[in-house]
Design goal:
three-stranded antiparallel sheet; COMM; COMMD3
Length: 193
């Protein structure tokens, strides 16, 4: 895992037994997971009695580093060996790695659900079907003699699938195709920047 220098420094502070004793380390790990899973911001989450002796600036930096590492590990679906090797490089003892990993395993599913709920994307088109129809007459019994298309878009979003049906004339369909081509070009240009 690639971590910024500030996250690495924060994690190295957590690994240092002189900064965080055994009990304060366990509390910090627990508080870090709980703060990510809490549905509301709890300003007193770092006001645990075991953490009172730790410098408040160091505590906040360490908490930020721990939560960043947790989210990155969940995002990458890291296994025990990936987490262990990363924490070993940051001078974590095997005991502290085990404490961290057991907390990670305990909360991983909840954190995965949390991360998947962030940044919902709009529905995307899975399939298109169309049929060419021909209007012979309208309701006023006038001759129309005009072709039109019946189009069905199968879209999937939020785990469900639905069909969007509409009709359009040849001109409207040509306009739609032109706009879709323009949109595709815009997306391609934006991805190259």
């Amino acid at each position: 895992m690639e971590l910024s220098e500030s996250v690495q420094r924060g994690l190295q502070s957590i690994a240092d037994p002189s900064s965080f004793g055994h009990s304060s380390f366990q509390v910090l790990v627990d508080v870090s997971f709980r703060s990510l899973l809490s549905s509301h911001a709890d300003p007193g989450v770092l006001d645990q009695s075991e953490l009172k002796q730790v410098d408040q600036i160091l505590l906040k930096q360490s908490h930020t580093a721990a939560t960043t590492f947790i989210l990155e590990a969940v995002k990458q679906n890291a296994d025990k060996s990936a987490i262990s090797s990363c924490l070993e490089e940051l001078t974590f003892s095997s005991e502290r790695i085990e404490i961290f990993y057991s907390a990670y395993q305990e909360h991983k599913k909840e954190l995965e659900r949390l991360l998947t709920s962030i940044g919902r994307r709009p529905p995307h088109i899975n399939d298109v079907s169309w049929r060419l129809n021909y209007h012979m007459k309208n309701e006023q019994v006038d001759k129309v003699n005009e072709p039109f298309y019946s189009i069905s878009l199968n879209v999937e979003g939020e785990g469900s699938s639905e069909d969007i049906n509409f009709t359009c004339t040849v001109e409207q369909l040509q306009d739609l195709v032109g706009k879709l081509k323009d949109a595709a070009k815009s997306v391609e240009k934006a991805s190259q920047m």
